[in-house]
Fold this sequence. Notes:
18% strand; binds adenosine-5'-diphosphate; Rossmann fold; seven-stranded parallel beta sheet; 25 helices; seven-stranded mixed beta sheet; alpha/beta; 22 strands; CATH 2.40.50.140
Amino acid sequence: MIERSVDLSTTLMYVKGVGPQRAAMLQGKGLETVADLLAYAPFRYEDRSNLKPLGQLTPGEMATVIVEVSSVRMKGLPRMGLLEVEFRDSTSGKLRGKWFHGSYLQNVLVPGLRVALFGKVESDSYSRDLLMMHPEYEVLSEDDEDGDSSLHTGRVVPIYEAAGKITAKQFRSLMRRVLDALGPLDDPLPENIRSRLKLPSLWESIKTIHFPSQTEDLRLLNLFRSPAQVRMIFEEFFWLECGLALKRAKAQQIKGLRFELNDKVREKIKAMLPFKPTGAQKKVLLEIAADLSSGRPMNRLLQGDVGSGKTLVAAEAAVIAIENGYQVAVLAPTEILAQQHYFYFKHLFQRIGYPVVSLTGSMSEREKSQVRKIVGAGLVKVIIGTHAILEQDVQFQRLGLAIVDEQHRFGVMQRLRLMEKGLQPHVLTMTATPIPRTLAMTIYGDLDVSVIDEMPPGRIPITTKHVNNDRVDQVYSFLRQEIELGHQAYVVYPLVDESETQAVKAATKMYQHLSEVVFPDFKVGLMHGKLPPSQKEAAMADFKAGLVNILVSTTVVEVGVDVPNASVMVIEQAERFGLAQLHQLRGRVGRGSAQSYCILVTEKLSETGRERIRTMVDSSDGFYIAEMDLRLRGPGEFFGTKQSGLPALKFGNILRDPELLEEARLEALSFIQHPPSEEALRTGIKYLQENWQRRYGLVQVG
Ligand code: ADP
Ligand code: MG
């Protein structure tokens, strides 16, 4: 085969040793070009140069060993599929490896095979032999395509996540080949920054990350803090922050509507308010009012814990827009929440004579077209609905403010859609799942953030308890007491495997059990997503009116539902819920003046499940909970990648590297504001545009 010249943009399929099949597997990991491959960083390093013989291992340590398979057998009940493998090394030491459900390995780990194992050394309580449970393994003696065993042993070896059938070992061979074929790479990082921060060059860093020399500090490598890794992490954050800074600068040039907050508007707000706003609400309203009068479109994220009174502030902002002659759209993620907002706003606005309409997907065509007509004619100032408002071909007469109530996603898509309609309204996004403040600031460069950090007065903290499923009877007698005191309760069921149908089944069954067997003398209601809209409305209205004592529900009551008389939230199979969801659900109670309770009933708890429950019992601080959530789930899942509009990072991890993120942010700001030269800035922006578009998708810069 003719060796083609290889550069960063070469498609991996044309790299020697990668055919269509492997190319497809690599693509499955998002690896298409040589540049992608080089950015596929090892997640761990093993020192395979100074290996301990088996005889020197001590229980409790994490170790890498190179051993040979001596025997393999399945043990125990077939159901468990326990695979037991005996290994030996040249010093005739012995080690046992055990894999539950390991039958698939029977034909892999055959006697005589040489493998590297990595895992925690234990002492088999039974035989006293040394043991590793589910060690990671790498087959060494198999004929390698390039036969270069020195890549895989006798050195500090990088471990990559497998891609399809491509193993860590094959990644090493591939990296070696690609690096050998590539010449030194140009370094895009501005020279002045690189030398001031003493960062190694791109080429040195890439080589070190994939093939650390014997002198590299293994401990630093595994902490992602070797100079080479630090450089790559810093660089990634640097470009990200440059992109955000440019985006923000661009956003500041867009002209927006100017709304005044004068005495007349203040009077109107005062007339609407049912109670005195808290200090935090006042502070946030001023921030919003400043945006609205700035002449630039507002793009503000309003964070505040569940029940902190975000909606009230949004209503005040709406009054400002309306008094300035514009319309307001309120967008909610679910129909139930849209309906809640509809009632809430209608209630507030009827005091000051603003008509309010709602538009949801479940309305008849005739109703919808009527709504469209009066909105288009400007006869109504406030339209409330699901995000479907944006799809339903609604033409506003003069849309001035969009209030987006989202669970944890940000109005990126909505905003784009509004802009497609040729509108440049102010956008206020309310989020009930706060993002840790530090992250919000650094990541959403073009988003301003306001925080309501104070609860309305008179709230009594919610008591949270964890109860095992086998003591659920005690929960029921507690429910009985509370209801006899005149309070109401929710009993919530999780979505099982993301299937609403399953959850509906579970909730319906429990509804029957509770209404017929446990509480025949109380009124029990049922609520779930599969009910026709009219029944959902009726169920909510009955609960709100106090006609129903216990509402059995799926997670449809998660966001926004506001029934102050409800004092108990029972969450069944609480281990199945994420932290954000648990916190949201808990926020449905504690909205009135009575002591409220959240009872988490669990069946089987995993390690992280236990951690989540503990977090809930320990804290009711949404910011702390969000932080824990981020920690337990990792940033990828926390933000969900696609919808959040967040870039997928390759080297950096916002959770692990906050200090590098902050450093990169400051460097990026100063680079954009005071570039070392016009030339350097131009080159930087060009680099960003060429690489940003592909990696960060949606985001436009420059
Ligand atoms: P969030 O949307 O932030 O979860 P809401 O806006 O739904 O919170 O407010 C929760 C409850 O607190 C509502 O019943 C609301 O009417 C009430 N509330 C909001 N602000 C105040 C305040 N300043 N004083 C008293 N009650 C308030
Ligand atoms: Mg709310």
